[in-house]
Amino acid sequence: MPRKPAPAEHDPSPEHPGRPERAAEAGPERGAGPAPAGAGLDDVDAVTRAVLTASRVLVALSARSLAEVEDGVTLPQFRMLVVLSTRGATKLVALADLLGVAPSTAMRMVDRLIAAGLADRRINPDNRRETILQLTDEGRRTVEDVTARRRREIAAIVQRLAPERRTALIDALTAFNEAVGEPPVPLAGDAAGPPHPLGWGEPGTG
């Protein structure tokens, strides 16, 4: 049976029927190159798309950095390590609340981290009916090593940018972090303040 010809695309403009330039006039296609400077500055969708793309890169960097240090630890488990690094010894219920998961889920994650030698539990000296969770020395080294590896990878990417683009990126990301209340990560070699990889600070801040 002969194939039917595909119907011609309808151009709503009677003056230029079938004019291919109209697609370009409507704006850049998805996946096309970057928009001209100043284009879409007030477009929430365009900004959201750019942030999602950047977050995909950052998650991939974090996953790779984690795999190079502890290939048996998942990103959610690493998130728990980071919270314990930030908070110190913490009760299970408080830890689950900080992570936004059910206590039973947090317990399973804790059991796996304890089995890996990255965390442990002990009796709460203030209430002997409670147990508190904390990092082991190995768990603390894991957080530090993964954070350091990710910092180096991000720095290598930033070095490819022209100085003026680095300045613009600082301004944009600083505004973004302030909007969600995320505290800044300490400078390299600065021990003041805990790391907050991937926006994993305490909820409800800001």
Topology diagram in text:
Layout: H1 21-25, H2 44-69, H3 75-87, E1 90-91, H4 92-99, H5 103-115, E2 119-124, E3 127-135, H6 137-158, H7 163-180
Antiparallel strand pairs: 1-3, 2-3
Helix pairs in contact: 2-6, 3-5, 3-6, 4-5
Features:
single chain; 206 residues; mainly alpha; three-stranded antiparallel beta sheet; 7 helices; elongated; disordered N terminus; disordered C terminus
Characterise the protein shown here.
- With 206 residues, the protein is mainly α.
- The chain is 51% helix and 8% strand.
- The chain has 7 helices and 3 strands.
- The chain has helices at residues 21-25, 44-69, 75-87, 92-99, 103-115, 137-158, 163-180, and strands at residues 90-91, 119-124, 127-135.
- A 3-stranded antiparallel sheet has the order 1-3-2.
- A hairpin with a 2-residue loop joins β2 (119-124) and β3 (127-135).
- α2 (44-69) packs across α6.
Assembly category: single chain
Overall pLDDT confidence: 77
Largest sheet, described in full?
A: 3 strands, antiparallel
Overall structural class, as computed from helix and strand content, comes to mainly alpha
Termini separation (Å)?
66 Å
The gyration radius over C-alpha positions equals: 24 Å
Percent helix range = 40-55%
Strand content: 5-15%
- The side-by-side strand order for the widest beta sheet comes to 1-3-2
Could you give the count of β-strands?
Answer: 3
**Uncertain runs with pLDDT below 50, 5 residues or more?**
1-33, 35-40, 191-206
- Shape, principal axes of CA atoms: elongated
**How many helix segments?**
7
* Strand/helix succession: HHHEHHEEHH
